[in-house]
Amino acid sequence: MAYWSGGPSGWSHDRNARNSRHASDWVDQYAEIYNWKLISRFFPLIKKHKRRMYATIFSMIIATLAAYIQPFLMGIGVTRITDTSTSIAEKMSDLNLIALVLVITTIITILSQSFQRYNIGYIGQNILFELRSALFAHFNKLSMSFFDRNETGKLVSRATSDVVVLQELMTSGFLNGFGDLFGLMITIVFLFILDPILALVIIATIPLLIIIMIFWQKYAATAFIRVRQSIAIVNGSINDNLSGTKVIQALNRQEKNLDDFMYVNKRNEKENLSAVKFQAAVIPIIEFLSAATTIIILFIIAIRTNNNSLTLPEALGLATAFTLYIQRFFNPIRDIVLQYTQLQRAMAGAHRVFEILDTKPDINESTKATILSNESKITFNNVCFEYEKDVPVLSNINLEILPGETIAFVGPTGSGKTTIISLLSRLYEVQSGAILIEKHNIKDVTLESLSNNIGLVFQEPFLFSGTIAENISFGKKDATEKEIIEVLSSIGGERFIKNLPLGIQTEIAERGQNLSSGERQLISIARAILKNPSILVLDEATANIDQISEQMIQEAIQIALKGRTSIVIAHRISTIELADRIVIINKGKIEKIGTHLELLKNKNIYSDLHKILHNQ
Q: Strand 378-388 vs strand 391-401: parallel, antiparallel, or unpaired?
């Protein structure tokens, strides 16, 4: 289904069009209320709490029976009170008995519902815990290609709001639905006990209700889908604005962005109002059917009373009981309409959550994987790779890096330099050819030993919430404070640590905003070398460093490179000159290999780069 496709009534802004495309991902998922295949996948989660669930269902049955027997008793009570053939004493005796039973059933209902709600909460919170834990664990197993294809905001939403919606469906949603169905069955049973003919009149409304619900669902589904699409677009707009606050303020785009947001927000309001109209339209129809059925039942009772088929006390008793039961009969239909949005949201949430859990990681550890020891010779044999089919990124990469050697990768942006080190770290899988460390294909070693053998320092140092010590020991949780201080001191990091009031126990603000770019990169380098890897990879480690911090980082890099096989990606001559050999990569291929002096003798990408930077 197309959605706001542009033109006078649509959107023309690129950002809004992009958000619309994001929202369209949800269309098919929200088109169904019930999906038994998805629902059945929750049974293993519920099975873990089967005793508590059985107890909850039993208490719900007891509560329903106790609540639904009351109209029956009230009908009997009215018949007894209005029966002129019985004495006042007999009437009071019957009334006292019925009142006592009503009090008992009310107490049973309250206690059963309290027990039921507690157990629902307990089971729901456990399912919430298990689903979220499963998602978090699975996120950590998934390959980088998965995160390339999926936005972080959507993934966070699946692990939070989608899981909460599912928890509600699996507990209160299922039990309420089961309770409504059981209550409907009990109602029909009591109706037939009271009067089979009148019961058939009420049941005759079921086909009409089904036809109404089929037509209503057909049109309401579209309206509610558009609601979910519109809120997705609003969320996308908010996410873009929060993520790009610095750019927005720098370009003074606040007013324009507010106008754009007001537009999508207004659209969201309109779609919600449209959905509310559908909901508001069907409730009166159900209420009309309920009232009409009540009138017909009372009319039939009146006719039968007039024909002396029923006595007046019997008629009054039937009228009381049937009036109350008619309300109970139509309650499940009202519940479906009122919970329609939640059911759609839950089914879509289930689809999205299980879609992630069903995603298989591209990188898998062999069952016969060996542990990689402290080895550092690296060999690339005819390595080829592509992110998208038939769009090669690397072609026939052949390179041997000797133990203790430092290699610098140089080339234009997009030439494949970062991809090579991503393949070496198995963030992506080699599609043809092989990468060897000593004689071991990296596919045949354990992921943990490969990670321990390679230290990575990225262009943008990502720091987690916590202390400096916790960030440095991120890859080696058993590191002592002494080890952390020693590794920091070895690369000159003790200078800025001494200026902090709590030293390495200083809390880091979000993404390390309370530290300079140079300090953040020092922490990143310390984190990489704390586990003493035999291979060190630096991906543009000095790219975003100011001139004052550059010398400090250069000194840290020189210390970190000593005694290790190293790969350096850089555009700064001061960093490249640290390499034993320089590899020029262009358009996914190795164009030339040589030392700094050898490459300067001929015209090539590196000599051109050196000339430009030297002139600067």
A: antiparallel
